[in-house]
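Submission sheet (multi-component)
Chains listed below:
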Amino acid sequence: MPKRASLFVTCVVDQVFPSVGLAMAEVLERLGWQLDFPEAQTCCGQPAFNSGYRAQARKVALHFLDVFRDAEYIVVPSGSCTSMISHHFEELFAGDSARLAETHALAPRVYEFSRFLTEVAGAEDVGARMDAVATYHDSCHALRELHIKDAPRRLLRKVRGLELREMDIADECCGFGGTFSVKFADVSGAMARTKIDSIARTGAGLVVSIDSSCLMQIQGALSRAGLPIRTLHLAEVLASR
Amino acid sequence: MTPLVQIRETIANAGLQQAIYASTGRLMDKRRHAVAPEVFPDYQELRSQANLLKRHTLEHLDFYLEQFENNVAARGGKVIWCRTPGEVADFILGLAREREARLVVKSKSMTTEELHLNERLEQHGLEAVETDLGEYIIQLAGQRPYHIVAPALHMTRYDVADLFTGKLRIEKETAPEKQTLIARGVLRQKFLSADIGISGANFLVADSGAVVLVENEGNARLTTSAPPIHIAVAGIEKMIPRAQDLAVFLRLLGSSATGQALTVYTSFLAGPRRPLELDGPDEFYVVLLDGGRTRLLADAERRQSLFCIRCGACLNHCPVYRKIGGHNYPWVYSGPIGAIITPQFHGIDRDPWLPYASSLCGACAEVCPVKIDIPKLLLDLRADVTTRTRRGLAERFAFRMYAWLATSPALFGFAGRVAALLAPSNTWIKRLPWFLNVGPVAKWISQRDLPPPPAKSFRRLWKERKRHAA
Ligand code: SF4
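Outcome: structure written.
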């Protein structure tokens, strides 16, 4: 039976970090998965939902349901967007039993990328190689809403040439928080600087995460501070050989 | 108004930043050790029990309040019901006048902050003295508590030394133990000559009519037993059904607040001194305050905001609190719990910015001993803000545009291209031309670099890839 999965690359990856989407596709294809990218996809609705604009979020969520209704698996390179779909769509459609049923049918098929690899594809060693000292940043929604903590680390430990070093505050928020990053720019910036101090203390030259928006915040702060540390999405590390 | 300027000042104050981060960090470490599975194996189970107990109590609050009142009366005490903080202050002032009181000692109570009790007392010529060391420091400094458990969390021992020298006219003393002795010397006298002792309550026990207080300094015990009158002021949500439920709550409170299995003193106060007893007041009052709390009872989901046992763990673990500190929150309660109860007690339009002052990282919910889903409540309150208050036209328009673009795939793909045309770059962007340096983008770039827009979006690249493969 062919192994089939659909990609939901998220709006951030589609518009800002397309290489993450390509890397994710490459890793999955290497493991024998047939991929499909439904072109009508856009966003999960999280920006509006997190800002309190529920009606607008609902519109976008409906669009998502329409696009992905028939997908067998949906793989997402983001813990935050995965959690939006699997946890928060439910709140958006409370009181709309038909949509709620659709959401409940869809939610178990939506997987964050590292969880898909370890739990569905059954892979830990994907044949990657990268010479680097890396540290892993736990993105908040992946960690606290999806309880993803070990899977990305297990995958990274199997990368040849890569040494994984833990930060002292790996699980502390990077300060992104969507519109929070601009509504409270000073606070968000200060949080990012605390994070990159911890990153720098590890001596790692690379920060890895499973959420591109955290990496946008962290890389932005690293680059502003003039620190020679780069950031990569887990998919990009796993695609490299 | 969002206190953005004050927040910026707090963040720019390196010494203050260091003090907040270090103090909260120490409390985080203590808690982590105290709830570790080797030390506290049934921690998670107790959290679930505490949540259920609070849920049950609030669902039957009318019953337990009545039971509590009857039991207090049976032991010779009196329950006073107050709808507003003002009524609490009026009761206390009235009683003080009748008894011709001059000196009031207070042990730590956040609830009395809701009525600005100290100011009210002083306006009426009474002397009010805080006896918890942290509160005493804050009172001398003329500030309000920075943190619900550690009121002087932001002050270093050097700050305290300067304060004592200035206010008490003594030689400079920077050793915390010596500072404690200085305060103790001052406060001893006050305890002995006070006419009224005012405390808060950590728990109100319905089945025994008791007020339970936890503390580490012994000042609450003196406050409630030395003066002839004891008044305990508490929000109605402090109720728990049975004395045996304390087994759950005391353990969780100590561990979560200060990393102690139990605090040094736990006092059970029920009624005035009885015949043949040596210590205790002649009169015992419990003042129960609504102050906006019953508004929350109506909503089954939001009611959980009242489960709070004021342990302070959510403040210590909140990365936003750890940057902006306690004084930039608009009301008595700061941190994540303040951000959810302030708008619910006072109505959403007073501080509509407050539910937004969070990155929604969820650290608060992870450590909350009674499992309040704080991020969910913040999200619900944000939805209230957009539907019940007047939001800026620009923001509403932006989200309408967003919803429109995000449901029109063809246009959606196009939006990103505009950015690539306007600000082409191969490296992370440090500054923008003036005509682009506006709105959210300007805010972003004020703190960190902006990613360069890619030449092609993923959807374009995917199409090309498929074409190649074919
Ligand atoms: S909300 Fe929870 S964590 Fe915060 S102070 Fe209350 S009980 Fe403690």
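Remark: Chain B is about 50% helix and 10% strand.
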